[in-house]
């Protein structure tokens, strides 16, 4: 009986191969879950950055458009109007009585002042695919409060799955001397 219990036992080649196969499958699944979690984290970070930049740009444009005044001789837009659609954006006279324009150029939202230069409102890491301004209530014989509706679509500019945001907002003018 002692001979049977003291007998040296070893793993066979088949047992070792089965063990290596099971270990490989477990490691493969763990690596797959880890890579997937990294991709989701990267997407969420890009989405948060996109949301931050879009919120900043929309808030900046909203404040400026809300504070626009009628063009009474500045020569920026047609006299007596608050806003004027341009080829790629909207022009208006800001509260400092200078001409200001929001436009889409090269996939970026930009602001341009008559004092010169275009300043980007969004990073070149993101691509603005659509920008439209719809003006209502700004006719000279119209007694409605002027409103501007902004439509925009912005997407991530990197490789792989990228986030995309579509936003619409309407701004009414604060200066009620219409």
Can I get a quick summary?
This protein has 178 residues and is of the alpha+beta class. Helix content is 33%, strand content 30%. The chain has helices spanning 2-5, 13-66; strands at residues 83-85, 89-93, 99-105, 108-113, 118-120, 126-136, 147-156, 164-172.
Offer a few descriptive terms.
178 residues; alpha+beta; three-stranded antiparallel beta sheet; 33% helix
How does the SSE layout of this entry go?
Layout lengths: L1 H4 L7 H54 L16 E3 L3 E5 L5 E7 L2 E6 L4 E3 L5 E11 L10 E10 L7 E9 L6
Antiparallel strand pairs: 1-2, 2-3, 3-4, 4-5, 6-7, 7-8
Give a structural overview.
With 178 residues, the protein is an alpha+beta fold. It has one domain. The chain contains two helices and eight strands, in the order ααββββββββ. The protein has helices at 2-5, 13-66, and strands spanning 83-85, 89-93, 99-105, 108-113, 118-120, 126-136, 147-156, 164-172. A five-stranded antiparallel beta sheet has the order 1-2-3-4-5, with helices on one face. A three-stranded antiparallel beta sheet has the order 6-7-8, covered by helices on one side. A hairpin with a 5-residue loop joins strand 2 and strand 3. It is rod-shaped. It starts with a helix and ends in a 6-residue tail after the last strand.
């Amino acid at each position: 009986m002692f001979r049977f219990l003291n007998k040296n036992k070893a793993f066979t080649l088949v047992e070792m191969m089965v063990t290596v196969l099971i270990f490989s499958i477990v490691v493969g699944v763990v690596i797959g879950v880890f890579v997937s979690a990294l991709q989701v984290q990267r997407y969420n970070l890009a989405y948060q950055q996109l949301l931050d930049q879009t919120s900043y740009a929309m808030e900046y444009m909203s404040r400026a458009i809300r504070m626009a005044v009628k063009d009474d001789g500045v020569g920026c837009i047609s006299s007596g109007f608050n806003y004027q659609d341009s080829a790629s954006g909207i022009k208006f006279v800001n509260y400092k009585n200078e001409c200001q324009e929001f436009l889409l150029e090269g996939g970026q939202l930009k602001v341009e002042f008559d004092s010169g230069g275009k300043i980007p409102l969004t990073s070149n890491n993101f691509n603005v695919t659509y920008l439209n301004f719809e003006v209502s209530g700004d006719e000279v014989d119209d007694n409605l409060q002027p409103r501007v509706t902004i439509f925009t679509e912005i997407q991530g500019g990197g490789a792989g799955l990228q986030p995309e945001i579509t936003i619409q907002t309407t701004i009414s003018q604060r200066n009620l001397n219409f």
